[in-house]
Amino acid sequence: LKATRISGDDRHIIIGVNNVDAQVRDRLAAEQAAEQRKAYIRHAALSSNLIVQYFVDPETEQFSEFSPTSDYEKLGIAKQGGDFFSLAQKTSRKVIHPDDQKLFQTLVTKEHILETIRKDGRFTLSYRMVHDDVPQYVKLKAALIEEDGKPTLIMGLFDEDAEVRHEQEYAHLLSEARHKANTDALTGVKNKNAYVTDESELNALIAGRKN
Predict the structure, then answer these.
(1) Average of per-residue pLDDT values in the chain
(2) Mean pLDDT of the 45-72 span
(3) Cα dihedral sign for 102, 104, 106, 109?
(4) pTM of the full predicted structure?
(5) Which residues of 18-42 are buried (b: 16+ CB within 10 A; e: fewer)?
(6) 117 and 125 in contact (C-beta within 8 Å)?
(7) What DSSP designation does 79 have?
């Protein structure tokens, strides 16, 4: 409510009423977004493999998104809005590897994520995104926190590509090393080392009454 006194021959007081409720909501939303961005920057500083982070209202599904790189923005995913989970399902058909789409669409639902968090404290899911026709291993993590007296769902997407490919390479090299250790180089058949290994495993099964 504002009142202004006008001087002149006749003295008048002009009273005007402004709707400040919308202004207050906008200011609070801007302050909250600033705090979320601050928290995101702090998190990103300690998690160099963080690709993007979402803040989701589990009741209304209103969300905001923060990403440190422009690469993620090229996917054309909205940075804020509503119907978060419906949007995630729709977007998955464009950016997730075809072999992982069913997994994503089955597990990344509000009901399943909140139920998993309730039981285990957090939700995690690994899958492959496709960027510039190249599959990339990522991990989705979600947790529920209290903000301003109401629950907020925080969802972070992490780049796991280098780690997964390193583990795959290590497993391949280990398999090759075992094969060489158990194979005679001249004949290509299993050697004495392979016999001793198999014998030991069989004896262990017999001792445990599993064979």
Answers:
(1) 80
(2) 78
(3) negative
(4) 0.59
(5) eeeeeeeeeeeeeeeeeebeeebee
(6) no
(7) S
